[in-house]
Amino acid sequence: xxxxxxxxxxxxxxxxxxxxxxxxxxxxxxxxxxxxxxxxxxxxxxxxxxxxxxxxxxxxxxxxxxxxxxxxxxxxxxxxxxxxxxxxxxxxxxxxxxxxxxxxxxxxxxxxxxxxxxxxxxxxxxxxxxxxxxxxxxxxxxxxxxxxxxxxxxxxxxxxxxxxxxxxxxxxxxxxxxxxxxxxxxxxxxxxxxxxxxxxxxxxxxxxxxxxxxxxxxxxxxxxxxxxxxxxxxxxxxxxxxxxxxxxxxxxxxxxxxxxxxxxxxxxxxxxxxxxxxxxxxxxxxxxxxxxxxxxxxxxxxxxxxxxxxxxxxxxxxxxxxxxxxxxxxxxxxxxxxxxxxxxxxxxxxxxxxxxxxxxxxxxxxxxxxxxxxxxxxxxxxxxxxxxxxxxxxxxxxxxxxxx
Length: 404
What we know:
By secondary structure, the chain is of the alpha/beta class. The chain folds into two domains: 2-104, 2-Layer Sandwich (Alpha-Beta Plaits); 113-402, Aminopeptidase (3-Layer(aba) Sandwich), CATH 3.40.630.10. The protein has 14 helices and 13 strands. The strands form three sheets. Strands 5-6-8-7-9-12 form a six-stranded mixed β-sheet. It is globular, with a radius of gyration of 20 Å. The protein starts with a helix and ends with a helix. Residues 1-29 have low confidence and may be disordered.
């Protein structure tokens, strides 16, 4: 606590000495917000910021409701990354009521974990094999390099907005003149960075989604100005999603179901963007039959190539994804691990009652230790998108096989 206080004093002193503005996090330091977080992280966080700043209110099923100061979001994010190997790790809420609704939504999470009425047979061999042969590592690498060239993609920064507008432009470029495909912004009221969604409309009301977060962060305070290339976290996921969309659109694929590709805003500060999107889909009664979350796909840190997260995901869909790998990607090794509560945007869909899966680039204990720093560049993956290409092929199989 003394260390944190000293840092605050230093930042405030420097701001006054150089006549500069305080970071936004410090400006809002008196505002209290509600979060839900894994119960395993509560004690560590309270030791970091103090019991007065992080008040535990209730716990259930390994999830805890807390009230914290908005200025401590950075500390929470840092703790989750450094001590718990979670890219997100908590969900920020609009109100106490919303936080408790999440705490008590065990029935919906249980529904999402169970098998739903989805055809998990694998019988689209010719279509899938033709599609995965078109995956282009160079195009994926170019997308990673472009996104990581922005100073940061922080959800409140101008470059965060600009990078998402680049994704919007790129996805509309891929859609071209097709009348069944269009990219658009899902705007959020409380911050400037939009979530970007590309839809290829199908004949039925069913929806298949692949998504990943578009924002990036580094450091603790002053994140609007931090250098956060985020090549792995999560330019790699957006590049993978972009490549899947490119292959399907350029090949003239016409889906039976609506295929949606999503680049979520504000994941790093509590899954804010994906939470709003998932709740919007739920409120509109959209029949989402499968969600695949791609958050970090290009750092090959384990003996396993693709690692399915078994917690807060759908077991039947996870097994289906594993069968897709076995069938279409011989030689690619896969297995299971756990990543804890709210470790990425799939948790937003699980909480809304939809089946979601989270294939990851390594075991959590072997994950890329350079994320959330200025060192998260493509050089950490040997300058290629070779590992991410495996995920693009898997995601193509996922979409085509569910689109029956």
